[in-house]
């Protein structure tokens, strides 16, 4: 099956996007809610969590891994590609590919957690495609807790989004990468504050398209995947708040199994 | 020495209060920054982290333990008192003792993390002392991330504090327990929004006084404590942001040792 993990609930936006595109494949999801959030922690610690998460997904029969977390994708991809011999997708590359195609003026904005922005990975990948690009990055550490509180439409959230986006607006970016899997839940307020002319790049949609394309071209791997449309959800900690946000994201009633890894 | 732990940086307000009262004793502090925050996690998970933290402090030579975290104090005290045979202080009891002494009308407000408020421990302890008390509790989950971002004086923080405190203001509480070790850093804005007639109970100060009193009366334990005024700080993850907030709290330059537990 397709194994997907995130630090918590954010990666469910990726699950939703994959279910919308290719609902036939079995999915096993792991949300590392006992260690959430990753975005405020050090690279070393996030690498350790990432390796444990992948080992758990392999034990559940995953044949393809999706790192549905920008922080883990930013700081741990190189190490896990060396350590594990199966296809591993991260959320950075498909978002960058789509962003460089979308941008007319090559004037990019990136928002993400502190760990993602500090890693500089979006800048490096964009510059590898478009050496003349201008890139402006802003860490937005309060957006994850605001999403996890379900404060999606509150005035305070809109004000905080506006404050974070102000330097990007001043620099007249034309393309904004939502560099955290929580941010698609704030898409409306982000679009309103950055302005409707700016194209938003939603990494959850980009990665779903990337996986679809991969499976169409890699039939040997595609044939190893079970296709009964089953979704299994595991977390390392269960709280009522988590269930609420998970339901909001997947728009359906869901049950979780709690595992200690 | 005195062993103190918290989920992260908040417990340093307790360290500061203890250093102000009884600076002569050696202190070993552990901030479980690899698992922070505790307040949004389940009781079971927090109990597991608490046991590991105490074991680490014992390995460092602690003879007295201070749970400088309201969430861990709320959900894990009973279990750890059964499991460990040494004096263990938590932050709830001294705050309640001081609150019931301070209140004229027995109309209490409590603010804390979601886990602390769900536990109902403050209500139970206050009612045990004052069965006729009225108690109003509000979970304020966004205050920890706001403090950890250092947004102590921002307008958005003031608005969010106001929103959380509104139901307590309406009920005309006369005493407000700051049920989270992060909140003393927001004392000014909390006092401004709840009104100057409301007495704020700062658990970090209450616990420092409680420990001082205990050591004056338990000379056999007091004599086991080294008195060279040394402060050793350990964390399970180090980030620049953590260093910044730690410095802000202790008002001095500090160095940490990172340990995996």
Topology readout:
Two copies of one chain form a homodimer.
Chain A (H helix, E strand, L loop, with lengths): L1 E5 L5 H10 L5 E5 L11 H17 L4 E4 L2 H14 L4 E3 L1 H11 L4 E6 L1 H6 L1 H9 L4 E6 L3 H6 L6 H16 L4 E5 L7 H8 L4 E4 H15 L1 H4 L8 E5 L4 H11 L6 E2 L3
Parallel strand pairs in A: 1-2, 1-3, 2-9, 3-4, 5-6, 5-7, 7-8, 9-10
Q: What is the helix content of chain A?
A: 40-55%
- The portion of residues forming beta strands of chain A comes to 15-25%
End-to-end distance of chain A: 20 Å
Quantity of strands of chain A, as a count: 10
Structure description:
2 copies of one chain form a homodimer. With 261 residues, the first copy, chain A, is α/β, with parallel strands linked by helices. The first copy, chain A, has 2 domains: 143 residues, Rossmann fold (3-Layer(aba) Sandwich), CATH 3.40.50; 112 residues, Rossmann fold, CATH 3.40.50.1860. Chain A is 49% helix and 17% strand. Chain A has 12 helices and 10 strands. In chain A, helix 2 crosses helix 3, helix 4 packs across helix 6 and helix 4 crosses helix 10. The model of chain A has no long low-confidence stretch (mean pLDDT 95). Chains A and B meet through helix 7 and helix 8 of A and helix 7 and helix 8 of B.
Structure described in brief:
Two copies of one chain form a homodimer. The first copy, chain A, is an alpha/beta fold and 261 residues long. Chain A is 49% helix and 17% strand.
List keywords for this structure.
alpha/beta, 261 residues, Rossmann fold, 12 helices, 6-stranded parallel beta sheet, 49% helix
């Amino acid at each position: 099956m397709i194994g997907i993990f995130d630090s918590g609930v954010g990666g469910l936006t990726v699950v939703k996007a994959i279910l919308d595109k290719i609902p036939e494949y079995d999915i096993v999801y792991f949300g590392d809610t006992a260690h959430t959030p990753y975005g405020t922690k050090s690279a070393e610690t996030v690498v350790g969590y990432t390796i444990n998460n992948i080992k758990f997904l392999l034990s559940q029969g995953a044949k393809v891994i999706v790192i549905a977390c920008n922080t883990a994708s930013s700081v741990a991809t190189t190490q896990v590609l060396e350590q594990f011999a199966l296809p591993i997708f991260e959320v950075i590359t498909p978002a960058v590919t789509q962003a460089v195609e979308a941008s007319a003026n090559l004037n990019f904005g990136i928002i993400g957690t502190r760990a993602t922005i500090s890693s500089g990975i979006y800048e490096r990948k964009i510059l590898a495609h478009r050496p003349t690009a201008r890139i402006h990055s802003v860490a937005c550490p309060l957006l994850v807790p605001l999403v996890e509180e379900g404060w999606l439409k509150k005035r305070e959230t809109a004000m905080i989004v506006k404050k974070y986006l102000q330097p990007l607006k001043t620099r007249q970016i034309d393309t904004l990468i939502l560099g955290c899997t929580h941010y698609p839940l704030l898409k409306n307020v982000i679009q309103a504050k950055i302005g409707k002319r700016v194209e938003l790049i939603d990494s959850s949609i980009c990665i779903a398209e990337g996986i679809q394309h991969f499976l169409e071209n890699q039939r040997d791997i595609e044939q190893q995947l079970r296709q009964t449309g089953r979704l299994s959800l595991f977390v390392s900690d269960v709280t009522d708040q988590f269930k609420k946000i998970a339901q909001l994201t997947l728009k359906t009633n869901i049950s979780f199994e709690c595992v200690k890894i």
